[in-house]
Amino acid sequence: MWKQLYAAIIALFRFAVGLAFAVLIFSVLVQVLGRSVFNRSPVWTEELTRFALLYLTAFGVGLSYRSGDLVNVDIVSEALPGRLPFILRFVSAAATVALCAALIVPSWRFAMIGNFQTSPALGWQMSYIHGAMLVLIGCLLLFALLRALAMLTGRSEGRPVSDADTPQ
């Protein structure tokens, strides 16, 4: 059950990253075609590109944390003897969980500020755009919590997981 849930979470976030990337590609393609073929680019493409980049980052941060691509400075910790590397990895995951938990309410407040604003070109309510920060914090919290729980239950040593290491 644990593996299926974890795989479903990873698949969901990969899909979200792919969707944000598809929106980004579409927006840039419309912009390039507008400039080079039609000599007139729609004004909304630049704004949509920025919004897609925000959500691409927000959905991808948890996956990056999982794989160690976000930030993984382990040259010192892995050189330590015994269980110290494991302890440092756990403390790092727990600190990430604590920091993200502390930032959930402020990021929610930031998103709600957007209720009073709309984007200039698309006319979208900015709370949806500011919500990318809430999604980012939530994703990072989720993946750090999953790592910490896996370490506590003995299912993981807390090292970053590459896709080649993931059982299918």
Question: How would you describe this protein?
Answer:
- It is a single chain.
- The protein is built from four helices and no strands.
- The mean pLDDT is 90.
- The chain is elongated, with a radius of gyration of 19 Å.
- It has helices spanning 2-36, 44-67, 84-113, 126-152.
- The protein is mostly helical.
Offer a few descriptive terms.
168 residues; 4 helices
Q: In total, how many beta strands? A: 0
Number of helix segments? Answer: 4
- Secondary-structure content class: mainly alpha
Low-confidence runs of at least 5 consecutive residues: none
Question: Could you tell me the strand content as a percent range?
Answer: under 5%
Gap between N and C termini:
14 Å
| Order of secondary-structure elements | HHHH
Average pLDDT metric: 90
Helix coverage percent: 55-70%
Give the biggest beta sheet.
Answer: none
C-alpha-based Rg, rounded:
19 Å
Tell me, what's the shape?
Answer: elongated
Summarize the structure.
The protein contains 4 helices and no strands. With 168 residues, it is mainly α.
Summarize the SSE layout with pairings.
Layout: H1 2-36, H2 44-67, H3 84-113, H4 126-152
